[in-house]
Amino acid sequence: MALAVSPLAPKNGFPDIPPVKGVRFATAAAGVKYVDRADVMLALFDPGTVIAGTFTQSATRAAPVLDCEHKIKSQTKDGAAFLVNSGNANAFTGRAGEKSVEAICDAVALATGVSASRVFTSSTGVIGERLPDDRICAVIGTLADTATATGIKDAAQAIMTTDTYAKGAFRLHNGTTIAGIAKGSGMIAPDMATMLVYIVTDAKLPQARLQALVSDATRRTFNRITVDSDTSTSDTLLVAATGASDVEVSEDAGFAAALEDVMRDLAHQVVRDGEGATKFVEVRVNSAASEADAQKAAMAIANSPLVKTAIAGEDPNWGRIVMAVGKSGATANRDRLGIRFGDIVVAEIGWVAETYREDDGAAYMKREDIVITVDLGVGKASGFVWTCDLTHGYVSINADYRS
Amino acid sequence: MALAVSPLAPKNGFPDIPPVKGVRFATAAAGVKYVDRADVMLALFDPGTVIAGTFTQSATRAAPVLDCEHKIKSQTKDGAAFLVNSGNANAFTGRAGEKSVEAICDAVALATGVSASRVFTSSTGVIGERLPDDRICAVIGTLADTATATGIKDAAQAIMTTDTYAKGAFRLHNGTTIAGIAKGSGMIAPDMATMLVYIVTDAKLPQARLQALVSDATRRTFNRITVDSDTSTSDTLLVAATGASDVEVSEDAGFAAALEDVMRDLAHQVVRDGEGATKFVEVRVNSAASEADAQKAAMAIANSPLVKTAIAGEDPNWGRIVMAVGKSGATANRDRLGIRFGDIVVAEIGWVAETYREDDGAAYMKREDIVITVDLGVGKASGFVWTCDLTHGYVSINADYRS
Asked: A229 near B390, Cβ under 8 Å?
């Protein structure tokens, strides 16, 4: 099925991303599942590259994820490669899944000269079906031969499943370039959704420093988004720094901020392509007893089907926010609880605000981007989450089409 | 709005519940919010009655819940009363909410001679609006005067909000009668949903024993159901034992089982009236490391929007079950995981079963009642949850109508 582009998609389309030194991309149509479209992406990195990553915490994570986690741990500074296919997740495929990963890594090594231990793969698509690795291996020679510095947009398209738009972002900082692509839009029938993110930069820094920056920024970006509370078996973020700019950034706070910017930008784009989404929602929680409590309350609000359907209906139903705070397990002072929609004070000190008018709340809810702020009234910690609404579109995408 | 009766409603309608010795019911139309229907229910208990209860764990629980929790702790064996209104939840109403509870309890005490400390109230309906307690107090005299032993069905109707049918159940055991009513159907626009359950019996047993039986059975009944993972500020279960049958049941395992039967029956009826529900689903989890792990995995499956929409679409999408197990946090052996739909083996030892045919799974999914069994492959503990599917009906009820 072809889905209409999300109404929340970036108005300017895919950004005009400049080449990143030491990085080349290629795509091909292997026919893993889709026909007449590119479904395999290769990213090739020059010697000197270090790789960092973060992965799904799922107990049923897929074979490529387990392989990446293993390889991230012991690294050289040789060349490296990412090989990603869409159409089949290679998840819940037992021993056969591991063999497919091996076969693909060996084929990439053979075609590119990169060591198999430096090939990182991801797969996204249907679960439980054997990955047709032979079809992927058959195009790897072509991929190696056609890789170019300007292929990043094609790469972003090749990894889409039922995303409604390709997702890319970049920042320039002090002579370095940071560019990223992502796929994901919650969970997509008939496939298991997966969020995949690949970021490349020509900055120079040790692997341990890159990993620390990525792990830290992940906490504030990709770990702060939720579409439907469901977690994929395959979520993967890989970051490659080629060092080809010769600009050392280990102690450069501006580089860390620029990297986090790219990650936040891509995280927002994933939420904005949430299945059936019509609203982009930021949930902020303040005056919590701890950061963990703030996060717990924010996630409970963002994942509540009742809150999400109210937002879809443009209904300023703040009672459902009180409910979500109550069930979250976070410590809250019922008699000091406060709620705001944007700058509108809805509730304070445990009851509806005297100044609040339902019409103001209803008018605010008509916006495309909504900010909900909740004060728990017990401490000084804060947290936030980005999410989208829950609409008929979500149910249609996930229930109306048979796999 | 008038909703069509749930397709999962009991085929025989409301059961023909016999009177319970020492218990009388009355209802009245107080105009709390609804017009032209009874919206207040009084249950009156003779001296000798003991009361047990379990309540929502929400941190934002409503004033009546806090009052009931307090009163449950110190009890006499005097007469007692339950007073319940629909249309307004008296939740998130600050000090005013507590005063409303006090006013109602005092009015019931005055009209019935029962001590105010023995009056237990519940409220269900809109949140954050001051309860018009004067309208409720105005009908309490009439309620006291008209209470009859046969009014339980009217009582079940008076506490409905947008439930699509009244819920009742009873069991006879060894000269005692156990009868119960419930309301709840997930979360209902424009109101915050609430599950309220009242069970009455003429059996004779000490309060501590009754509370122990109720708490224990709650773990296996009402705490095993979920419609949309959202928890009300007002969920309340109250059980009154009048002792009027003069049958001592403290050591009678059959009574405990009959009580649990009534609770399970009502719990199922609440799920069967889940908003928009078209399927009743039992999720069983076996071979878990602990009972807590089994429950965690079962709840993750039952609350997954992806699993619930797949069931709505009659799609045997077992990959989503693997995903839900993976995200649950329960320990699972990916390579020993097994899944069954009814008796159909879908997956075993970590991959799709050789005997599994997609057509068989699809045919099974067309049933109204569905059993999903998952083996985690790590231990000997089990758990289960009852839930329903997630349909366009749910979104319509919660998003399409403004509050």
From this structure: no
